[in-house]
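Note to self: keep these together.
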Amino acid sequence: MSNIKDEIILRIKEALVKDVGRAIARIDPKDMKLLGLESGDIIMIEGKRSTPVKILPCYPEDREKQIIQIDGISRENAQSGIDEKVRVTKTTYRQAVKIKLKPETKSGSLFKSNDAKYIGSLINGLPVKTGDKVRANLFGSRSVNYTVTDTNPAGVVLIQPNTSFQLETTKVDGESETHSGDDRAPAKIPRNFRTPGGTTTQRSFSLWPSRNRKNTYRESCGARNRCLLYQYLRP
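Structure:
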């Protein structure tokens, strides 16, 4: 006869510093056994709201206490605080195909299309569902929080290297726009742009980067100036 339970109730405690931002929960190995869990499994923490996290065993000094250690982001996602009780259950998940993110800070809205893949690489391996917040730790101590506004497929998903991302950014006028990791905006050359060779173009035109064809110029300005323009404008 199996002694595995469907759910257990645990009290929230602060996460270890090294677990912050990684959507990790640590519990007593005995509690893991009660739920039929192994390290790395995905569980659902249910407070006022439910959120998925990865499970790991806690260290010996934190055992026999019926606690669960999660960071501030997971507590916010579960809408629960320190010393509050939450329901813990094992859950199923699927691999994330596509995820849409919205920055929680103005600095996060500065990221454009090419940065979507970079941000995705920083949160690779996290379990999420729509409405969850995630944190991307950038260089140094800088970080940006994002809200997951949509997932494909729906439900609990696990971010993987092949997951594609869309970033919702906000323009100066307050309107929102979306950038995906596969989008590349054209590089515009302003009217009367003067090249390093000293020649001024007659009208404005655009460079259209594409993975399937070479950069095409909508205006001819001589082989030498085309080379100089490309060198001047390339990232």
